[in-house]
């Protein structure tokens, strides 16, 4: 027969061990992109992702710029790796996500912990044709000679 005090003591010990195992620090991870390996640094504070920094990236610049800006911030903001990949930059997007997973594994954290819930979509503000035409028209007005 297990005594209530023993159960409480074992429960408290298990909770203390779990808290002590929470990862804190900066860990590097790598994953293969379209052109070469992408390397990231992931900063954790008690298993909370506080920063994701791209250290090395040899992906095509025009293609990889949006994933480099959007994906790390989405991971930090949502504490999730279940973020949308950027259309047209799938390999770059996946390389960043897989490099973060690699860093988490090196920290002793199961990446599946950050794969819960619904997929998170990114939101990018794209100017409408009307906005673009208005900007062009305004700039052209400044180049026209004054007929007064």
Element string (H = helix, E = strand):
HEEEHHH
Oligomeric state as shown: single chain
Question: How many H/I helical runs?
Answer: 4
What low-confidence regions span 5 or more consecutive residues with pLDDT below 50? 6-19
Gap between N and C termini, in Å? 102 Å
Q: What's the shape?
A: elongated
Task: Please report the total strand number as a whole number.
Answer: 3
Describe the largest sheet.
3 strands, antiparallel
Supply the helix-strand structural class. Answer: alpha+beta
From the alpha carbons, calculate the radius of gyration and give it in angstroms.
Answer: 23 Å
- Beta-strand residue fraction: 15-25%
Residues in helix, %: 40-55%
Strand order of the largest sheet: 1-2-3
Can you give the mean pLDDT?
82
């Amino acid at each position: 027969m297990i005594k209530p005090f023993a159960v409480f003591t074992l429960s408290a010990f298990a909770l203390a061990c779990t808290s002590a195992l929470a990862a804190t620090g900066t860990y590097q991870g790598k994953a293969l992109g379209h052109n070469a390996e992408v390397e990231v640094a992931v900063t954790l504070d008690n298993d909370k992702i506080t920063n994701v920094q791209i250290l090395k990236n040899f992906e095509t610049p025009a293609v990889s710029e949006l994933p480099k800006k959007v994906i790390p911030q989405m991971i930090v903001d949502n504490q999730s790796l279940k973020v949308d990949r950027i259309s047209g930059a799938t390999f770059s997007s996946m390389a960043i996500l897989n490099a973060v997973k690699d860093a988490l594994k090196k920290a002793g954290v199961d990446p599946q912990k950050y794969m819960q819930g619904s997929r998170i979509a990114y939101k990018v503000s794209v100017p409408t044709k009307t906005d673009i035409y208005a900007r062009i028209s305004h700039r052209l007005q400044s180049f026209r000679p004054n007929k007064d």
